Amino acid sequence: MRKPLIALLALLLVLLVPGTALAKTRTDRVISDPRILESSGLAPSLLHDGVLWTHNDSGNPNQIYAIAKNGSTAAAVTIAGEDARDWEAITSWRDADGRALIAIGDIGDNNAKHDYVRIAIIREPENLTDMTVQPIRVLRLTYPGGPRDAEALLADPRTGRLYVVSKTLFGSEVFVVPTQVWPGGTGVSRITRMTRVARTGAALVTDGAFLPDGNMLLRGYGNQSVIAAPETAEDGSLDTLASQALPDQEQGESIAVVDDGAYALIGSEGEDQPVLRVRVPSYAVETAAPTSSSAETTSGTTETLRTLTGDDNRLRLLIGAGGAVVVMVVLFSAAIMLRPSHSRRRRR
Question: Which domains does the chain have, with CATH numbers?
Answer without folding.
Answer: 20-299 (2.120.10)
